[in-house]
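Request:
Um, any thoughts?
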Amino acid sequence: MRTHAYSFPYSRPRIDQAKAVENGTGHDNQFIGMYRLRKYGFTTSFLDPEHVLGNWLGRQWRKVLNIWWMHVPFYPYFWLYDVVFAGGAYGSLLIKALLHLPRPKWIIYDANIAGTIGKADTLRTKMFRYAVSHADGIVTLSQVEEDTLREMFPHMAPHIQFLHEGVDTSYFIPGSESEQNFILSVGIDPGRDFATIIDAVRGENIELKIATKPERVAHIELPQNVSARFYAHDELKKLYASAKAIVIGLNSKEDSNDSMGTYAVIEAMASGKVVIATETKALKSYIHDGTNGFFVPVHDVRAMRNTIRKVCDDAAIRKEVGARAREFAVTHCDAEVYAKKLAQFLSTLKD
């Protein structure tokens, strides 16, 4: 089966990352199982603008045509594949739905479909719901999203599948660096809540390193114990391994199943680290509060500060909870586990 993959917008793989995976020097977390599917009889490739046009021109292309429409000019390429596995390209899916095209089969890689549709009370959200309803399947990243979408689209229920996000547990490993007196927060998407974490560590005897684009925190006055910059993947791997804890702040909404933060959470867990995260519906599929990580309420500075203190002051907690986090990642989130389950799901598709 020939399968094309498109990664979603804030974590799109660069060409150099693909080369690193192919030569064994990098991890394939952001390639949504496409390399590993090849072990199960699939022929896979990528059709992001960057993979077709190169990194620079691909980025310019995205600025002109947004996530909805930027693949439409490539539409004839879709016909070369049996399956499209996409976290976007909804304009192309809409065209397929409107024209009732049977091929290729279209599987959505879902980060927050239910939240994007909402009440479907605008033309855009109505178009989005119509397009989604004509997909051939959906892979969700949390149990709550699977349950919600099966209620929204009962005709698709057998073809909606929750799979834990996949992480390369042989790349992100515990114990490769000695622990240092800092905590790490990771994320480049706009939904990150760095402000709460920064306020929580003001005046504390702990350094906070933020791995993000500097513009994400440009509006915040950083205290002396806080720094922010972008890190390459090999640098980030070392930071995961040497941090006392990984802290993920999210601007969560009560009615949202948004899966933001899952990449950082599973990378940290695979590294054997305690994760302190904003409690969200989606992350409940990954973090069991007090067992393999800790939750704090959204925007709660006091709870965030107290939890950071508890974890950073107690080496036993870090060791025990970190070990359970690693065990969870290996058992449920390992990239090989993800790829095998994805292959089984794709194999159920019928012409």
About this structure: The first helix runs from residue 15 to 22.
